[in-house]
Design a protein that fits this description.
7% strand
């Protein structure tokens, strides 16, 4: 997937300025596709130039005008074609898993603080997802198509975090057992 596709999806959900789009990436989309603000602005400029985005200038008093980006028909057609392309299952690079295997050649107990730190970070992210679910999807029966699809992605993130926490608990139990043994 290219950053362009993530931007098209986000702007179809809600037109936005470059600043607002970058903030949206920081808050939600960035959990699935990361980009720096500089990358986002560079791609917005390219997509505006080639006609995939329409821009509405908004005058601001005492500040430079801002641009509100929306998806133009060529952008919508590109996203439609991309949606129908086959996608390869993703492979995962997981540094913590390699470190756990490496601990066999050193002191396995030395990994405990790092695994605990990772577990805390995943627990915090899970709490963020769960509170976002309560805030953004209070009535699951009343969701429109866009909200249902956003919610199913969020549920995937929730389940991933739950699985990761359970795995890290297993790793911690194993490391503690090895340390004691």
């Amino acid at each position: 997937m290219a950053l362009e596709h993530a931007i098209l999806v986000s702007l179809l959900e809600h037109p936005a300025s470059g600043y607002d789009l970058a903030r949206r990436f920081d808050r939600s989309i960035g959990r699935f596709w990361t980009a720096t603000h500089q990358q986002i602005y560079r791609v917005l400029g390219r997509m505006e130039s080639d006609g995939r985005l329409a821009v509405q200038p908004v005058e601001q008093s005492g500040r430079p005008d801002k641009k509100i980006y929306a998806v133009a028909e060529p952008g919508r057609a590109e996203l439609s074609a991309w949606l129908r392309e086959p996608v390869q299952p993703e492979s995962v690079r997981h540094e913590m898993a390699v470190r756990i295997r490496a601990a066999a050649f050193d002191d396995p107990g030395a990994l405990i603080p790092e695994v605990e730190r990772h577990r805390a970070a995943h627990a915090e992210l899970l709490d963020t997802y769960l509170s976002g679910e309560q805030r953004d999807f209070p009535d699951l029966e009343a969701l429109d198509v866009q909200q249902q699809l956003q919610h199913v992605v969020l549920r995937g993130g929730i389940e991933f975090e739950r699985m990761t926490i359970a795995w890290l608990d297993d790793v911690l139990a194993t490391l503690h057992r090895l340390r004691a043994g």
